[in-house]
Design a protein that fits this description.
Layout (H helix, E strand, L loop, with lengths): L2 H36 L91 E2 L5 E8 L5 E8 L5 E11 L18 E3 L4 E7 L12 E3 L2 E6 L5 E6 L8 E3 L4 E2 L6 H4 L3
Parallel strand pairs: 1-4
Antiparallel strand pairs: 2-3, 3-6, 4-5, 4-8, 6-11, 7-10, 8-9
Length: 269
């Protein structure tokens, strides 16, 4: 064989060897690429952990580097040169949060007080008073022009103790057999009480009508005034006030008011 013939064969063998090596390398890379496409990286799962309730989720997009990513949602894919294809999976992670709280409080209060009062006074108790009667009072009888046919009785406490005027005066003209009634409308809310020197009053309606037109009219010359105790019993002695010299005209309509504290009240009825 000549030298010319051997040289082409050598070149052809070298070229075949290079081509075979290139094909082998390509096949190896392709196999590796298919395996990367089909197999899921367990660290590249895109299923995110849900954020806990009440926690605001993050919204940032992660960046892919080296086949891994951070953030709530990310995808990555790099195409390599030289026929290599790569893909990267992103890992998502949810946010988490926790919170603790505590509180305490206390309140306290106190109050104290000691109300105290003192007072002094003097007065007459009911137990120290006595009923008014003819012995511890002075009684006068006076006719008045208005109202017509009326008389005013005035009783003054002449004793040393307070006396009470119970009910109304029991008047008796000329030893009459009956006592005229008291006018219920004139009864005061409380018993009339006289301190020593104080006066009380009662009115007497002597006769009915303007002209004394009642029945059994007559002229009386004397008057006796009796008092009552708390139990409405007549007590002695009686007072015997003087009447006018000519006497006073009375009839069967005769009636009296309750004992009161003011003269004008006694003459109202």
């Amino acid at each position: 064989m000549s030298a010319f013939t051997a040289r082409p064969r050598t070149r052809l063998l070298a070229a075949a060897t290079v081509a075979l090596a290139a094909l082998s390398l390509t096949a190896c890379n392709d196999k590796l690429g298919v395996q990367d496409e089909g197999a899921a990286d367990p660290t590249s799962s895109t299923v995110g952990t849900p954020a806990p309730s009440g926690t605001k989720p993050g919204g940032s997009t992660g960046s892919t580097s080296g086949g891994s990513s951070s953030g709530n949602s990310s995808t990555g894919g790099n195409t390599g040169s030289g026929g290599n294809t790569g893909s990267g999976g992103g890992r998502t992670s949810g946010g988490s949060g926790s919170g603790t709280g505590s509180g305490s409080g206390s309140a306290s209060g106190s109050a104290s007080g000691s109300p105290a009062g003192s007072g002094s006074g003097s007065g007459t108790s009911a137990s120290s008073s006595v009923p008014c009667n003819g012995a511890n009072t002075k009684v006068t009888a006076q006719t008045v022009s208005r109202p017509i046919n009326h008389m005013l009785l005035t009783v003054t406490n002449t004793g040393s103790k307070t006396c009470d005027l119970y009910y109304y005066p029991a008047v008796n003209f000329d030893d009459a057999q009956s006592v005229p009634p008291g006018m219920k409308d004139s009864q005061p809310q409380a018993v009339t009480t006289l301190s020593p020197g104080q006066s009380g009053y009662a009115g007497i309606a002597l006769a009915g009508g303007d002209n004394g037109t009642g029945t059994n009219g007559r002229t009386a010359k004397s008057l006796s005034v009796y008092f009552f105790d708390r139990d409405n019993n007549s007590i002695s002695p009686a007072a015997t006030p003087a009447l006018p010299a000519k006497g006073v005209y009375v009839d069967d309509s005769l009636k009296v008011t309750y004992w009161v504290s003011y003269a004008q009240d006694a003459l109202t009825y």
